[in-house]
Amino acid sequence: MSDDKRHLWKKVLSPLYWDDGKVVMLDQRLLPTREVWNTYTDHAQVADAIREMVIRGAPAIGCAAAMGVALGARALPGDPDPFWQGLLQVCARIAGARPTAVNLSWAVQRQQQLAERTMPQGVLAVRRALEDEAIAIWHEDIACCRAIGKLGAELIPDGAAVLTHCNAGALATGGYGTALGVVRGAVEAGKRLRVYADETRPFLQGARLTAWELQHDGIDVTVIPDVMAGALMSKGEIDCIVVGADRIARNGDVANKIGTYTVAALAARHGVPFYVAAPRSTIDRAIASGAAIPIEERPAREVTHVGATQIVPEGVKTRNMAFDVTPAELVAAIITEVGIARPPSETTVDALFERDFDWRAWE
Amino acid sequence: MSDDKRHLWKKVLSPLYWDDGKVVMLDQRLLPTREVWNTYTDHAQVADAIREMVIRGAPAIGCAAAMGVALGARALPGDPDPFWQGLLQVCARIAGARPTAVNLSWAVQRQQQLAERTMPQGVLAVRRALEDEAIAIWHEDIACCRAIGKLGAELIPDGAAVLTHCNAGALATGGYGTALGVVRGAVEAGKRLRVYADETRPFLQGARLTAWELQHDGIDVTVIPDVMAGALMSKGEIDCIVVGADRIARNGDVANKIGTYTVAALAARHGVPFYVAAPRSTIDRAIASGAAIPIEERPAREVTHVGATQIVPEGVKTRNMAFDVTPAELVAAIITEVGIARPPSETTVDALFERDFDWRAWE
């Protein structure tokens, strides 16, 4: 792999990159006020960084995990037996950083299986293979995002005001982003856009991360409190909406960050098209409809405090549902790397799985 | 006026009271973490407290202003001419504290006109009249709220989960509250309720004030981020909604805190009744519909910071519309002290103005 391929991050905004035996990650906990890139030389540090949310977003975590395994392999003894035993420990350490993230265990398993297959060729070959695979996983994710961006761009009118919720951006993926990939794709296609970013309480991914990364790329962005989206739509100031997805059911129901459903319901009322951008891997065809998607409740502190400031009285109850479900009937289209399901239904969703995706064509 | 009438605050939660020549106000800037009652002996201090938002909410500000004038009159010379000149200065100082609040100038004018009428009876009589009038203005506002609460209680089913937005509570009025007056009225009528309080970004009146005052009164309250109301409604967890109003047009369109329209639109989608509770004085019959109500844009800092924590990158644009307009068609009923406009329309709204209200019956 040539040097510039290893440094794809220089052309596309990424939250991490592989730098010749080191993993470099943007510390997202410090955004939006400080841009600090941490360098990791040890797999245990990478595991800690994942657990401590230096990096977040399922696809981004998968990339970091794959790089962490490659990092771990470099430091292990050259003798095959202790190397293999050590590698299993490295994989276990990283996979345990956030046990519920699917992309994390998927990336670690992919690396471990690759190592097992490559072991007959010797430790040096395994080290190289893990390193190349980590970069491949990262680039594959960026390629997916760029394909989503190119397909989705066609849905965005020139001059549009685009509303987004949460951060389905470069920072949540290997780079480029899904919903914000569509924004980037439209900008690359020469369209002039203005983006409204819902701040996205309680964790403020819109205010902190979406605003930061669009400003970084020179894309016009305005942050609004979540409560303001309805007023803007009623005044005709929003032309379309693009959000990401955490999980999509076979019928096209979409689980995404809490507040997404509210935006979709307002959009339906005002005739504003509501689009979901996500890699095909987000679609869980084992789930028939959104009703079967479990909704995680998260810690109260995200609601009761912002930074050090307490905003809810001591002893008052709170709710903190992390996601909500938007029924397929409110979704104009689901944009994936292999095509657009429009309108979403079992038929149009199934059709996406009959197509191939050649990520190397996007390099 | 008997002592216990002067201390109505002991029976009804009020954000202020008159304590024998002193004005005592709860410092709402420090809520929800600290309950501090400030004592004011000087009218200029009261003016400063209004300007610095120790007290907020238009009816509450009106009460504070009337008490401030009474306070000023006590400190003026006993000689009629310098007394009258001094009183005009006191009135101007207080009226200028927040020049745009209608209730503020209304209360000051009412006091000044009373003083002018009473001057022939001497300075001592004016001082007494201003003091009694300040208490009357305060008690009248509480009486309005209690009447709203009693009428509105009939609309709230026993066992209901009631959602509210912002703080239309005791803290925003002379006491008891409008939307939260309906909650208190239902509780006094023996109904068991659970209240969900939208946190109400950007200023967080729901999280900070509504939660505090309902907890204070022992009413079951749960704070949610604004983005969560839609998910709760879609799960059938909200039975009705009660909010206040900043201004109501003759056709029943309601201007209220930003985010109110979103709640109303979600309520319509889920068949949840959406009620507005407000004194009749909130209805501006000179305005035909909500389209004519101007919407104030407030400072960016309310959006970009929470306490000392910066949540939006430096240099990124924000919007901060203070209010939105809910069309009358989304409002099941407007609850006032003289009756309920159900459904709101020019006819039902006009009918409210054919009735009398005897606030002394509520003492």
Detailed description of the structure:
The structure is a homodimer of 363-residue chains. The first copy, chain A, is of the alpha/beta class and 363 residues long. Chain A is built from 12 helices and 17 strands. A 7-stranded mixed beta sheet of chain A has the order 6-5-4-7-10-16-17. In chain A, a hairpin with a 2-residue loop joins strand 12 and strand 13 (309-310). The longest helix of chain A has 31 residues, at 123-153. In chain A, 56% of the residues are buried. The interface between A and B is large, with 55 and 55 residues.
Please tag this protein with its features.
363 residues; 17 strands; seven-stranded mixed beta sheet; homodimer; alpha/beta; globular; four-stranded mixed beta sheet
Detail the topology: elements first, then pairings.
2 copies of one chain form a homodimer.
Chain A: H1 3-6, E1 16-18, E2 23-26, E3 37-40, H2 43-51, H3 58-75, H4 80-95, H5 102-118, H6 123-153, E4 161-164, H7 179-188, E5 194-198, H8 205-216, E6 221-224, H9 229-234, E7 240-243, E8 247-249, E9 254-257, H10 260-270, E10 274-277, E11 283-284, H11 301-304, E12 305-306, E13 309-310, E14 317-318, E15 323-326, E16 333-336, E17 339-341, H12 346-352
Parallel strand pairs in A: 4-5, 4-7, 5-6, 7-10, 8-11, 10-16
Antiparallel strand pairs in A: 1-2, 2-3, 8-9, 9-15, 12-13, 16-17
